[in-house]
Structures are given as structure tokens and as C-alpha cells.
């Protein structure tokens, strides 16, 4: 990968320090260790392949060699763990826009942490809080399937930019655009530690809005209609009995009635 391209991104902070690996267990795990060793805000870890890429709730993220963007970004907003989902939303919006700008594909966000194209998943995002000893930092892990030509049978809802756009894409311009978008949103977010400036844009790109979905947690599953996303980034749904529920990112998975969306 051409790291110079990424270093020349039009950002002040994100992507100015890059650790690049041919192969790594997980970019999030690596960046967590680097944060504890004193990595500065904006540092990123990129790998060509992850051997133990992570999804939410201990799930695995399939990250084969040179086909995708397997990247983690370090930011240091002074927030508690309860606000981590807001960083997930911010990163989701930035990634969605970067994919749209660089490929022309109509990427959408599946609340809270996936990007989909043509109803299939091209990207997952996993944010984790880390206490560095000096401050708190947030690791934003982003996995984008860029030039993957096929997926294992157990990932029926996975797709790549290549499969949807019928084009091989260079990864560097996508990374660069993503960092620029993310920095813009992050600067706004840091002023008031609130999503109020971007929540409307997020909702515009959110594929779940006004749709019927299944809400799946470890203990239950029920059908509901998505009504709104509040400024905290929570999903507001109406159950079939008319009662509204407010759902925190991180607690549940949202599924379509007949498939992934
Ligand atoms: P969820 O979609 O339930 O919110 P996560 O965001 O935690 O799940 O993502 C992990 C899940 O994504 C895995 O359990 C697997 O089903 C799926 N997955 C793993 N690797 C990929 C990939 N490269 N592309 C698309 N989906 C993947």
C-alpha cells in the first residue's frame, strides 16, 4: 500500500502517524497496545491481513490478504464508555460518505455500525474504549471489503465494493477520503460532545429508518418499526403492541424481516 498517499490526506491530525503491517492479529488490539505506549491522537494502524479480526460481542471479522481496508484509528475525546456508540455513529457516517464519494456506490448505514450496499454488508465498525493510564482513548476499528471476489458460505450477507461496483478500487484514496470526512465530523463532535450537528445526516443515510425490523438480543427477539434515532444515537422503535422502546447500540442486532436488511 502507498502510505505516502495516506500521509498526504488533507487532515490535521488523523493519519499523520501510521503503523503498517503485512499481517497482524487485529488492528484494534495493536492500536490499543500502542495507545498505552503513548501513541498520539490520530495515529492509525493498517494491516494487509488480520488473523483475528474482531466484530462485536466477540464475533469474528473475516479480513483476508490485500482485499480490504483493515484499519484502526485512535481518537481521544474525553468521554465515558456510555458515549462510545456516538463515536461509532460518527465513524459510520464518515465511512458511508467516503465510499459514496470515491466509488459512486449508494452506500447506506445499517444502525449502528455497518455500511451496506445493495442491502449487503461491505463494512463493519467496532469502537473500543482504552484507558492509557494518562487519558481515555477510543479505538475506531473499520473493516471495508474492497476488492474481495467471494466470501465464505457462512457470510451470505457480505459483499465488497468490487462485487457491487464491478470495478477494482485502489484502497488509498478511500482511506484518505475517510480520514478527511471523519476528522471533519470529529472536530464538530469534540466541541460539545454531542451528535446534534450530524444526526440528521446520519438519519438520511440510515437504511433502517421507518422500516420494520427484528430486534435481536441475547435473551429475546421481537418485531418493531424504526421510528427515529435520537441525538444520543439510540434507536427508537415501536413494538407491535404500540409501545416505544429506546435501544442502545451495542446491546442488540437489528435484522430485516426476511434477511439482513
Ligand atoms: P452484526 O451484523 O450482528 O451487528 P458485527 O457488527 O459484530 O455483527 O459484525 C460481525 C459479523 O459480521 C460476523 O458475525 C459475521 O456474520 C459478519 N462478517 C464477518 N466478516 C465479515 C466481512 N468481511 N464482511 C461482511 N460481514 C462479515
UniProtKB/TrEMBL annotation:
UniProt GO MF annotations: ATP binding; biotin--[biotin carboxyl-carrier protein] ligase activity; transferase activity
EC identifiers of the protein: 6.3.4.15
GO cellular component, one term: cytoplasm
InterPro entries assigned to the protein according to its UniProt record, in alphabetical order: aa-tRNA-synth_II/BPL/LPL, Biotin_CoA_COase_ligase, BPL_C, BPL_LPL_catalytic, Transcriptional_repressor_C
Any GO BP annotation: protein lipoylation
Gene3D superfamilies on file: 2.30.30.100, Bira Bifunctional Protein, Domain 2 (3.30.930.10)
Oxidoreductase found in the keyword field: no
Domain (BPL/LPL catalytic) ranges: 1-190
Record bears the keyword Magnesium: no
Alphabetical list of SUPFAM superfamilies matching this protein: C-terminal domain of transcriptional repressors, Class II aaRS and biotin synthetases
Keyword annotations: ATP-binding, Biotin, Ligase, Nucleotide-binding
Domain of life: Bacteria
PANTHER family: BIOTIN PROTEIN LIGASE, BIOTIN--PROTEIN LIGASE
The protein's name: biotin--[biotin carboxyl-carrier protein] ligase
Organism, scientific name: Holtiella tumoricola
